[in-house]
Amino acid sequence: MDCLDNTCAVRRCGFHVVLFEPEIPPNTGNVARLCAATGAVLHLIEPLGFRLNDAQLKRAGMDYWEHVEWHCWPDWVAFRNAQPQNARFWFVEAGGPRLYSAVKYERGDYLVFGRETAGLPARLLDSNADRWLRLPMFNPAARSLNLSNCVAVVLFEALRQLDFPHEYRP
């Protein structure tokens, strides 16, 4: 396994960001930086499309990696089995029946995002259709949105709904 875990003492916002088989180092680095800034826990599901010592990954995450609680899992089953039985998962993927803003988020929710090139597996979406969310798009010529942008939009909506718990103001 190419991954190591890091657990650090930061303010927790109560949300978990899950990247299913991420492929592009700068996207994952940007998401790590977002998790450091918000206190979200980051979960990476293998296989990854890069090594965690990748220079692009570190550059995008800057010096924030040490401030992120992150975990790497060998596959979806190992990850899911390690989470609480009653955990709430939201699967964010194009084509979902509900808008990301139409649900009521709760502390402890898991926000799951798929690979940059292929998204989430159909088996996960089909078996969780009631938890499949989408971000709206308005131009059919645009194939997709950037992964790290999608994570930011959904995570900040969840935080907004909870009135930005534990916000740090310098």
What is the compact description of this entry?
The protein is of the alpha/beta class. The chain has one domain (16-161): 3-Layer(aba) Sandwich (Alpha/beta knot), CATH 3.40.1280.
Question: What value does the Rg take, in angstroms?
Answer: 15 Å
Number of helices: 5
Widest sheet: strand ordering: 3-2-1-6-4-7-5
Q: Could you tell me the mean pLDDT?
A: 89
Number of domains: 1
Task: Assign the CATH architecture.
Answer: 3-Layer(aba) Sandwich
Content-based structural category: alpha/beta
Question: What is the 3D form?
Answer: globular
Describe the protein's architecture and organization.
The chain is α/β, with parallel strands linked by helices. It has a single domain, classed as SPOUT methyltransferase, trefoil knot domain (Alpha/beta knot, 3-Layer(aba) Sandwich). 29% of the residues lie in helices and 16% in strands. It contains five helices and seven strands, in the order E-H-E-H-E-H-E-E-E-H-E-H. A seven-stranded parallel beta sheet has the order 3-2-1-6-4-7-5. Strand 1, helix 1 and strand 2 form a beta-alpha-beta unit. Helix 1 runs parallel beside helix 2 and helix 1 runs parallel beside helix 5. The chain is globular and about 35 Å long. It starts with 15 loop residues before the first strand and ends in a 9-residue tail after the last helix.
Q: What descriptive keywords fit this protein?
A:
Alpha/beta knot; 7-stranded parallel beta sheet; single chain; 16% strand; 5 helices; alpha/beta; 170 residues
